[in-house]
Design a protein that fits this description.
The complex is a heterodimer of chains A (470) and B (161).
Chain A: H1 2-12, E1 26-29, H2 36-45, H3 50-65, E2 87-89, H4 102-111, H5 115-120, E3 124-128, E4 131-135, H6 139-143, E5 147-150, H7 151-157, H8 159-165, H9 176-184, E6 189-193, E7 203-208, E8 219-224, E9 229-237, E10 245-247, E11 250-255, E12 260-268, E13 273-283, E14 288-295, E15 300-303, E16 306-309, E17 315-324, E18 329-338, E19 344-353, E20 358-367, E21 375-384, E22 390-399, E23 405-413, H10 417-424, H11 430-446, H12 451-465
Parallel strand pairs in A: 3-7, 6-8, 7-9, 8-11, 9-12, 10-13, 11-13, 12-14, 13-15, 13-16, 14-17, 15-18, 16-18, 17-19, 18-20, 19-21, 20-22, 21-23
Antiparallel strand pairs in A: 1-2, 3-4, 5-6
Helix pairs in contact in A: 2-3, 3-9, 7-8, 10-11, 11-12
Chain B: E1 2-8, E2 12-20, E3 26-35, E4 39-49, E5 55-64, E6 68-78, E7 85-95, E8 101-110, E9 115-124, H1 128-135, H2 141-157
Parallel strand pairs in B: 1-3, 2-4, 3-5, 4-6, 5-7, 6-8, 7-9
Helix pairs in contact in B: 1-2
The chains are: A alpha/beta (470), B alpha/beta (161).
Chain lengths: 470, 161
């Protein structure tokens, strides 16, 4: 109960403007805890093919066998028996905006999904709890042959494509949470971009957790065929809860020959969410994959977007920002696996810790024998804003080929006195000056994310920096 | 400044913890790994800053050939009260052939904000430009490589204050 008081206090203090709960009717809410029966029930409620049920059951067994990772953040407060693994909103997927239930519209209003964005951006897909309740596909998209559906619809309409690609980049045994996701997944997006098609507008999805203790296990599969180009944006926000929520997503991406994919995330979960996500892309010859990752919210995030550079001249990039405030631990990073010759990768990671927060960079660059001519550059910069906070860097660079270049650098510092002095001598007060410096520090990554998110991010920095200079 | 040197030239392990327990201490570690025969070469170095106003430098350079496997595990640790710490960790490894490999783990654990802490790591082969320069002056390739490696190691061997 004490936690609840904390949360409501946060909301009263307007520290978390998105902290609100709506009353949505749920047509099926699973009992707390996970059993084989529940896994079967989820599959049958979704009327899934037999092979998917088999995958789920196998994954459930794997999940029971595997051990929880102990190397990252502290996962011990999560009570896995106290989580609802499946919630199905009463309303089926709405076809038009008018059909979207009022309560849900209100939520979008409060988050501030702009009207213009709904109209303009192609196919706004929003996940409300475990199922996509609102989805609109612009005509132009379908004319190009681009498929943008919820994962459940994708499985129903294109079972063959799903079967061929599901769980191949991230096998169910990859880690315990990937196994859990494979067993109970629900929602997420299914994207298929045909050969040589440039999607143009970014595809957007808005994820939210709503019911207290509702675990959200979305599953996203993106397939970019040869020579295609696409940008997927995922934004997260969750209302306030009195107890910890779990979010364990899996994102698999295929970037085929000469294709280009960017996947951008702005994660702003409420500060009691455990965000444990596995994201990986398989990048083929001459293709490019870029992860842009902003982690602002959650109690603990463990997320390391990866690129498997499997084709010659494949390129992988991760640009990430982590913000660790009071009571938060951001354990984030990146993985680049160079399997083919002349592959290149770049990791830029920026973290800020404040008010007792902890920001951790954990990353890996691996170049296997035969990956000659490969290059990788890793830059990690951390800013610690006060003496209570903490920053760690744990990189592993494993090089098994000599004809390569690997560069890694990291710095940890505070806001420079001389930078502050410079700005203040020009009549800017200490608080504004600090905000400006922090925004400048984040700029190289922020400029890569879409404008509306960049604005949100800058506002958040302003909000968090309020009254921080003493 | 106190300088501590080590050289690992056959398979084995070196485990060094450099404690900073007195204010205004300045310590430097210069390490060389010459891994020219097959086997595991492991170096673990920790700069452990516990008190305010200390200065640390760790530089480890290594060459690996003939199937040597080099692991450098470095850590800069700065405790909560260790304000005004300045610490730098550097590791550079040259891989001379396809049979050899290296793992570089430069880690940082920083628990206060009044610090300057950084690390840098590079792993790669002999610079083509340097090799070209020497061979274009009539030095055969094997000798040129030896010269470059010697020069690379000398950067640390010959540091004097």
């Amino acid at each position: 109960m004490s936690k609840k008081t904390d949360n409501s206090k946060l909301i009263e203090d307007k520290l978390y403007p998105l902290g609100h709960t709506d009353d949505v009717e749920y047509s099926f809410t699973a009992e707390k805890g996970l059993t084989e029966g529940l896994v079967r029930k989820i599959s049958s409620l979704k009327k899934e093919p037999e092979w998917m049920l088999e995958i789920r059951l196998k994954a459930y067994k794997k999940y029971l066998e595997m051990k929880m990772p102990t190397w990252g953040g502290d996962l011990s407060p999560i009570d896995f028996d106290d989580i609802r693994y499946y919630i199905k909103p009463k309303n089926q997927e709405a076809k038009t905006w008018a059909e979207v239930p009022e309560a849900i519209k209100n939520t979008f209003e409060k988050i501030g999904v702009p009207e213009a964005e709904r109209e303009l951006l192609a196919g706004v897909k929003s996940q409300y709890d475990s199922e996509v309740v609102y989805g609109s596909l612009k005509k132009a998209l379908s004319e190009k042959g681009v498929i943008f559906l919820s994962m459940d619809e994708g499985l129903r309409e294109f079972p063959e494509i799903v079967r061929e690609h599901f769980g191949k980049v991230i096998p169910m045994g990859d880690n315990k949470l990937a196994a859990l996701n494979t067993a109970v997944w629900s929602g997420g997006s299914f994207v298929y971009v045909p050969k040589n098609v440039d999607v143009g507008l970014p595809l957007q999805a808005y994820f939210r957790i709503n019911t207290e203790r509702a675990g959200q296990f979305e599953r996203t599969l993106i397939i970019a065929e040869e020579g295609s180009k696409m940008h997927y944006i995922e934004g997260c926000s969750a209302p306030s809860f009195s107890s910890a929520s779990l979010h364990a997503a899996v994102v698999e991406i295929y970037v085929k020959k000469n294709a280009k994919v960017q996947y951008s995330t702005v994660q702003n979960w409420f500060k009691n969410v455990y965000n444990l996500v596995t994201k990986r892309a398989r990048v083929m010859e001459n293709a490019e994959m870029r992860w842009v990752d902003g982690n602002l919210g959650s109690r603990l995030t463990m997320k390391y977007p990866s690129c498997i550079l499997a084709g010659r001249k494949a390129h992988g990039e991760v640009l990430s920002i982590a913000w660790a405030g009071e009571g938060q631990h951001q354990d984030t990073g990146a993985k680049m696996i160079h399997l083919a010759p002349e592959t290149t990768s770049q990791i830029i990671s920026k973290s800020i810790s404040k008010n007792g927060g902890r920001a951790t960079y954990r990353g890996m660059v691996h170049m296997v024998p035969g990956a000659w001519g490969s290059r990788s550059k890793v830059v990690c910069d951390a800013l610690i804003l006060d003496e209570k906070s903490r920053s760690d860097t744990y990189p592993v660079n494993k090089i098994q080929e000599n004809d390569v270049v690997l560069e890694h650098e990291a710095t940890v510092s505070r806001i420079g006195e001389e930078q502050l002095l410079y700005l203040m001598s020009r009549g800017i007060n200490a608080e504004e000056a600090s905000t400006m410096i922090v925004n400048g520090f984040m700029e190289p990554v922020v400029k890569e994310i879409p404008l509306e998110y960049a604005v949100e991010m800058n506002r958040l920095v302003g909000l968090e920096m309020e009254g921080s200079v003493g | 400044m106190k300088i501590q040197r080590f050289k690992l030239d056959k398979p084995g392990e070196i485990d060094l913890v450099i404690p900073f327990l007195t204010s205004f201490e300045e310590k430097e570690v210069l390490g060389i790994i010459s891994a020219m025969e097959p086997g595991e070469y492991k170096v673990r170095v920790v700069a452990d800053h516990r008190v305010p106003n200390t200065f640390g430098r760790i530089v480890i350079i290594g060459v690996a050939a003939n199937g040597a496997r080099v692991t450098v595990d470095g850590m800069v640790k700065i405790a909560k009260g260790a304000t005004n710490t300045d610490s730098f960790l550097e590791m550079r490894i040259l891989l001379l052939d396809k049979k050899s490999s290296a793992v570089a783990e430069p880690k940082l654990e920083i628990e206060n904000n009044d610090v300057k802490a950084s690390h840098a790591a590079t792993v790669g082969k002999i610079d083509e430009d340097q090799l070209f320069y020497l061979t274009s002056r009539g030095i055969d390739e094997p000798s040129a490589k030896i010269l470059i490696v010697e020069g690379f190691l000398k950067e640390v061997e010959e540091v004097k204050y």
